[in-house]
Write a structure and sequence with these properties.
The complex is a heterotrimer of chains A (about 160), B (about 350) and C (about 550). Chain A has about 160 residues and is an alpha+beta fold. Chain A has a domain of about 100 residues: 2-Layer Sandwich (Alpha-Beta Plaits), CATH 3.30.70. Helices cover about 20% and strands about 20% of the residues of chain A. Chain B folds into 2 domains: about 80 residues, no CATH class; about 270 residues, no CATH class. Chain C has about 550 residues and is α+β, with helices and mostly antiparallel strands. Chain C folds into 2 domains: about 140 residues, 2-Layer Sandwich (Beta Polymerase, domain 2); about 325 residues, Cytochrome-c3 Hydrogenase, chain B. Chain C contains 19 helices and 16 strands. In chain C, the strands form 6 sheets. Chain C has a 4-stranded mixed β-sheet with strand order 1-4-3-2. In chain C, strands 9-10-11 form a 3-stranded antiparallel β-sheet. A 3-stranded antiparallel β-sheet of chain C has the order 14-15-16. In chain C, strand 2 and strand 3 form a beta hairpin. The chains are: A alpha+beta (about 160), B mainly alpha (about 350), C alpha+beta (about 550). At the B-C interface, helix 7, helix 11 and helix 15 of B face helix 8, helix 9, helix 11 and helix 18 of C.
Chain lengths: ~160, ~350, ~550
């Protein structure tokens, strides 16, 4: 009989303790993020793999030599590098990038392309707003129209 | 100050003077019916919004905040949506029972709602067995739930309905006995008499020990009767998806939803009436407290009633969003091994209390 | 327990040299005798069963271990007589875990296990044509078009079992799973409490459960088959998608396996960071497991608290690894890049926060009499049953089976760390619940030891540009959040593996549902399922 009441009161006590915890959380600041409103305010992790992109410099030049290593490494056939032959000033022909196609719809964001790129020509941006109305729009051309390979400046070694 | 009772009496006087008695009565009935329906719906909307907001805060969230300022019109938008939704008709159901069930559920709660006294003179029906009527008519809901579960021809709903039947019938007992305990103190089943008896001090203060025990038991049992967590076994969304109303869609589901929320309000309302003095203000029965008493009495009676009821509703929400769900055998054990014996003993204590004091 | 060499000679087989674990080869007709003897000698756990297609014949590889002698591992290999005569006697009555494993091997390779009581297909539909993991499988969609009709209930319940007749021909007997007048309720594939797309067919008597029959394959993606056509770095991203809640640990396991095969020395710093990531993943997974268990008992608030605190870990992952759920931070040879400058501070901030929150969890839920009443005295799993079912991880340890791979076969420097293997003895639901919260404490301890003194010797070892594994078989066990996760790689020296098999802890966990739930109530089925904390993509693969 004593045990019965002991159990009863300890049960009620523990229930009240649980209610205390929820009340503490009632007073705490909510952790909800107000997404469209905090756009531009919230800081996203720099390394977040949102979408593949190819940085261009001011002169509309990129670093991609169209070697195709990224295409080979991609597990899902997301990347398609279309190259063209261009003639240089000295008459030689050289392989250059024509179109760099990236299919966001099949990308699993594994990062093998950026990890293996010898020129570091492609990087991840942390844009995560991918929704579009048509599936075709997910296939993106990463190199800008009329862009060119960035010419490496010969490093001038200071003469002593 | 003009009370509601005076307004109503004036209107009644005016109508009976101008019109024949039968027409006046009909018009009065229609007005009151429409008024109560409107109040019923508005209260449901408020309660739904309140629950969503409160539960969000318990969970460190914000809750609905897109429709209107602070999301105030969220439940209005939900209501419009639910009204526009298609009512999916399901093959192999018992068509008649399937369509009757929700009306029974909502009729049970609406009839109980009508017996509440919202303020001084703000009561629809007031007769000598008011409390008995409340206890009796609120059991109608269980028939609706059982029929819904049975007629849906679905294994989940059937299990939900059976659980619900077992639960409601058992908890009705201790809820009834808890009320009986207070009836012993009040000496009347008439709701007006019960409220009038608390004008000096609420019943919970008149007989502190047995009344408090009865109060707690009534809250637990009432909570169980509303099918809300930790007693939400008939719905048990993680086990039975939605329990007895799994197959209902659109406004058919809306009826069950409304009834559930209003039942919560009704249980809180009855508890406020029987234990916390209904619309009676808080009074201290002493010479020195006259100023305080008159300030309390200045607050309109319907605010007192609503305030008490909503405070109890908040308590119920707090409980609901803290505790896990019981299992069916534990649920019945709680009723038959803990609540029932305690409330029976409590009834005796109360009888002794009334005899002695 | 005797020395393994003695046991091997006692069963009359000889060890095959040059393997990672002691290995013996057995003829199919000798298998049952050998298996019974091995069980008697103490090998009471069938950890893994791998089907193989050796082109000329099929084979099955059994990985055995023991509860008494934790470090003992024995590999038994059985080859069928030929491709046409692919029969092997069943061992499902000796080790219960073989039940599902053999069904899987039958489903994928068409290996016929004689006398298996229930040789239905496990993942594919019962009317599937062909056996997809055979090297000569024709993947023509015309052979197996997208079905437009549902699988019939008769098909799903028809349990074939094979036996030899007098002339040695294989004949099939059929038996129904449920009686005609049993009240069978479908739980899933779409159900709030199955934690994924698992389909449970439950036979009920009122609220009491008679029998549970799990149906797999709703999220089967053929990851093991995909692995055979991918290079090793490409496989890494698939490993994270097995058990997505302990993805980092799975990825770590695959990296370790490849590194072991290549003989790569991983820098100490990389190892330390890998362990921190593993333990953070374990905490995140246990938090979710705890939350889901609370939610299945009706306490949604507790679930949200679990998710809220898990989010902190996700933020740490995002900052350093670049992904939240699929972190993709471990690569072969080390880490993808140096840890973020904020990493150390974030982790240090997290540890005290988590400790505080665990106290709140205990007050909110563990001490709650309703929760206690529901979890206590329910769903007991004995140590013997756990071993026979191959149930590892927190569930196995709740039954008192010391099966923590971090202690048994320490990898990546776990042997230098000071932590306890949390063990309980009863094996009830409440033990399984408590053990997760206690393991969070231990994980925090491990992180605390590492975070202050990360070594400084680079984050990645030099790896060849194209990774080709030397010919051979490699097996790596790690402890993921749900149990013993194993990676088996069979390489023919190519840049693609010949066969990859993942030992998923979740499949054995699901197989424990039926024995645990019999004679309990539906509400308990949901809760026991949550206490086992299985992840369906891990079981389905």
């Amino acid at each position: 009989m004593i045990q019965y009441f002991k159990d009863l009161f300890s049960g009620i006590w523990n229930l009240l303790q649980g209610m205390r915890i929820t009340m503490i959380n009632f007073i705490r600041k909510p952790i909800t993020e107000q997404y469209p409103e905090n756009r531009g305010v919230k800081v996203y992790a720099e390394r977040f793999r949102g979408e593949l992109k190819m940085p261009h410099n001011d002169a509309n030049e990129h670093k991609c030599t169209a070697c195709g290593i990224c295409q080979m490494n991609c597990p899902n056939g997301t990347i398609k590098v279309i190259s063209k032959q261009i003639t240089l000033e000295d008459g030689k022909t050289k392989k250059a990038l024509d179109k760099y196609l990236y299919d966001l719809g099949t990308c699993t964001f594994c990062g093998l392309c950026t990890m293996n790129c010898p020129q570091k020509a492609i990087t991840w941006s942390n844009n995560f707003e991918h929704s579009v109305f048509r599936r075709e729009t997910l296939v993106k051309q990463l190199n800008n129209e009329g862009s060119q390979l960035e010419v490496k400046k010969a490093v001038v070694t200071p003469q002593q | 100050m003009i009370t509601f009772g005076e307004i109503i009496n004036n209107v009644h006087q005016g109508l009976t003077d101008a019109l024949p008695a039968w027409l006046a009565a009909t018009i009065e009935y229609v007005i009151i019916g429409a008024g109560f329906l409107g109040l019923y719906c508005v209260l449901a909307l408020i309660l739904i919004l309140l629950e969503r907001k409160i539960c969000a805060r318990f969970q460190c969230r914000i809750g609905p905040n897109r429709v209107g300022p602070w999301g105030l019109f969220q439940s209005v938008a939900d209501m419009v949506k639910i009204l526009l939704k298609e009512i999916i008709s399901i093959n192999n159901t018992d068509k008649v029972l399937f369509k009757t069930a929700m009306f029974l559920a909502i009729a049970g709660s609406f009839c109980t709602f009508g017996a509440l006294q919202f303020g001084d003179g703000l009561a629809c029906i007031d007769f000598n067995v008011g409390l008995f009527y409340i206890l009796a008519i609120s059991s109608l809901g269980v028939v609706g739930i059982l029929l819904a579960g049975w007629s849906s021809n679905n294994k989940y709903t059937l299990i939900g309905a059976m659980r619900s039947g077992a639960q409601l019938i058992s908890y009705e007992l201790s809820a009834g006995i808890a009320i009986m305990t207070m009836v012993v103190l009040a000496g009347s089943l008439n709701i007006s008499d019960i409220i009038a008896g608390q004008s000096k001090a609420w019943f919970i203060f008149q007989a502190p020990i047995p009344a408090l025990i009865a109060f707690i038991i009534y809250l637990i049992a009432g909570h169980a009767e509303t099918n809300r967590g930790p007693f939400d076994l008939p719905e048990a969304e993680s086990e039975l998806t939605a329990g007895y109303h799994t197959e209902y869609s659109g406004i058919q589901f809306g009826f069950f939803y409304l009834a559930e929320y209003l039942n919560m309000f009704i249980i809180a309302g009855v508890a406020a009436t029987v234990f916390l003095g209904g619309w009676q203000p808080f009074q201290i029965n002493a010479e020195w407290a006259e100023g305080f008493n008159s300030v309390m009495a200045y607050i309109p009676s319907w605010i007192w009633f609503m305030g008490k009821t909503f405070a109890l509703v908040l308590l119920s929400l707090w409980v609901r969003w803290t505790f896990p769900r019981l299992r069916i055998d534990q649920l019945l054990k709680l009723e038959w091994k803990i609540l029932m014996p305690i409330s029976l003993v409590n009834l005796l204590i109360m009888a002794g209390w009334v005899l002695i004091f | 327990m005797k020395k393994i060499q003695e046991i091997i000679s006692a069963v009359g087989a000889s060890n095959i040299e040059g393997q990672q674990y002691p290995t013996i080869c057995v003829e199919p007709n000798q298998l049952r005798k050998t298996a019974e003897q091995l069980k008697k000698e103490g090998f009471d756990v069938l950890l893994n069963l791998t089907g193989m297609d050796y082109n000329e014949c099929f084979g099955v590889i059994y990985h055995l271990t023991s509860t008494a002698n934790k470090n003992a591992m024995l590999v038994v290999k059985v080859n069928t007589a030929s491709r046409e005569d692919a029969t092997i006697p069943t061992v499902s009555d000796i080790w219960q875990s073989a039940n599902l494993y053999e069904r899987e091997a039958y489903d994928f390779f068409g290996i016929q296990f004689i006398n298996h009581p229930d040789l239905r297909r496990l993942f594919l539909r019962q009317d599937w044509k062909g056996f997809p993991f055979r090297k000569d499988y024709d993947a023509d969609p015309k052979l197996n078009p997208v079905p437009l009709v549902n699988q019939t209930v008769e098909d799903m319940e028809n349990m074939p079992s094979l036996r030899f007749d007098k002339d040695g021909k294989v004949i099939t007997d059929h038996k129904g799973l449920f009686d005609k007048n049993e009240y069978v309720v479908n739980i899933g594939p779409q159900h709030p409490a199955t934690h994924g797309v698992l389909h449970l067919r439950v036979s009920l008597d009122g609220e009491i459960i008679n029998k549970v029959d799990p149906n797999f394959g709703y999220i089967h993606r053929g990851i093991e088959k995909m692995c055979e056509s991918k290079t090793y770095p490409q496989i890494l991203q698939l490993t994270e998608r097995l058990d997505y809640l302990s993805g980092t640990i799975n990825r770590h396991a695959f990296c370790l396996c490849v590194e072991k095969a290549l003989g790569l020395e991983v820098p100490k710093r990389a190892q330390a960071v890998r362990i921190i990531f593993d333990e953070l993943t374990r905490i995140a997974s246990h938090l979710l497991g705890w939350g889901c268990m609370c939610m299945d008992m009706g306490s949604i608030t507790a679930f949200i608290y679990g998710m809220r605190d898990r989010e902190k870990i996700m933020d740490i992952f995002e900052e350093t690894g670049g992904g939240r759920l699929m972190v993709g931070y471990n690569v072969i040879g080390g880490l993808a890049n140096e840890v973020s400058p904020k990493f150390v501070d974030q982790v240090k901030e997290f540890i005290p926060y988590m400790r505080k929150m665990i106290k709140e969890y205990h007050i909110l839920f563990t001490n709650n009499p309703i929760a206690k009443g529901r979890m206590e005295n329910i769903g007991f799993l004995t140590k013997e049953a756990a071993a026979s079912l191959g149930v590892t991880g927190p569930t196995g340890r709740a039954s008192g089976w010391s099966c923590d791979v971090r202690k048994i076969e320490p990898y990546a420097g776990y042997d230098q760390l000071n932590f306890e293997e949390v063990l309980r003895s009863e094996g009830g639901t409440f033990d399984r619940y408590l053990i997760r919260l206690d393991e969070i404490e231990q994980s925090l301890r491990i992180i605390e030891q590492l975070i202050d003194n990360l070594p400084d010797d680079g984050f990645k070892a030099k790896t060849p540009a194209i990774i080709k594994l030397p010919e051979g078989e490699y097996y790596q066990r790690v402890e993921n959040a749900r149990g013993d996760f194993g990676v088996y790689i069979n390489s023919k020296g190519d840049k693609n593996p010949y066969r990859v098999k993942f030992r998923s802890p979740c499949m054995t966990l699901i197989s424990a549902l039926d024995p645990l739930c019999r004679n309990e109530k539906i509400a308990d089925l949901i809760m026991i399922g949550a206490s086992l904390d299985y992840v369906i993509p891990c079981a389905d693969r």
